[in-house]
Amino acid sequence: MPEGTAYYLTAAVLGMALLVKAPGLLRRWRSPTVRAVYALLVLPCAGFVLSAPPTVAAVNRFTGISNFSALLVHCIMTAYACASLVLLGYWRGESGDLARTRRRVRVWQIGCCVVIAMLVGLFALGDVPVARPRDFDTYYAATPFISQMLLLYLLAYVAAGVATAVVCWEWFLDISRKVAHRSSTSVDSCLRGGLLVLVVAALANVVFGSFKLAAIAARWAGGDWDALNEGLPPFMSASGMMIGVGLLVPAYGPALIDRVWQPLVDITALRPLWRLVSSPANTPNGSIFLPPPWYAGPEQVLLYRMTTIHDWMRELALHCTDDIREQAYRRARQSGAPEREAAAAGLAAMFTAASDARAREVPSVPDQGAGAVAAVRRAETEDRDLLVSISRALATSQGRGGAHRPTAYRRTHTSCR
What we know:
single chain, Rhopdopsin 7-helix transmembrane proteins, 17 helices, elongated
């Protein structure tokens, strides 16, 4: 693998996250939260690019200052740690606490500026004549002023990582407690998932800083733990990718769940009912409607199928017999099925029998389906996913050897001839 590939790959992942969020960032640039999100994507992206050995050599050569890239990376990652706290502060801050949130954020920003100023001052006072693109921290661990710079940077980085992990974990627990008293939404699920990823990423940053500190302390004690320091780049690459995931999941996860995943789940669940609706016996002249375009998304396909099924049910209304529905409903209840499942089982049996009746051209009876229509409307008020429930009931009955045609069906329709 070419030198620096891991760094550039991580920067590319963060850059893609930035491109995805760019339209929203530009539209809402005046929002401090949006600016914090932008900083949280740009800073680590720049940090990984500048940490790659080829970039380190290029920056040092361009500036003419030995190890200047190391100072840039340390300052950027300090600002990134501050941006993490700022974003979480704005995310959690409620409208009533906005003034307090702003004061807290201002303290963090001032502290970050002070740390960066001290890093620059200590670097200027130190002597780092030999370029060390891979082991700057351990090579200059005992150098006056540079050792203090490294210690300040790593302590600030670890402290910010701990604070980020604590805030994210407390927020995660707070959401979990609220969800325990109400139904969980896609927003709740994605936010909790994103917070867990950010907790892991923050702990990874803490481990990174702790290992760096351990390697530096070993140098102070006359030991050599440089191998520990050299093994950290892949670890940090994984941490950077997790940061991008942790930010993108809460932002775009709900839309993906509601507009892609859930429609696909419903389309799959509707498959038994859709097969019945689209069977040749139920599609005069081969089709009911023109199919959706090939580029239609899951939402459009689901809407098309639900509309087609509703129209099919309306056409079958004159062939529906409420006695069949009532029989199937009672059997389901007697077998221990909940009310919702029993209602769906009754409707599945009724529509299956009505479909058979129309396929065999059994004459319909005026006003015969009034009770069935009323039963459907009643079930719709109790079950928002009634079509899915009917489809599952249909799949269950087919799995038991085919939809059951009650004797009442034969009697009713035979007498109509």
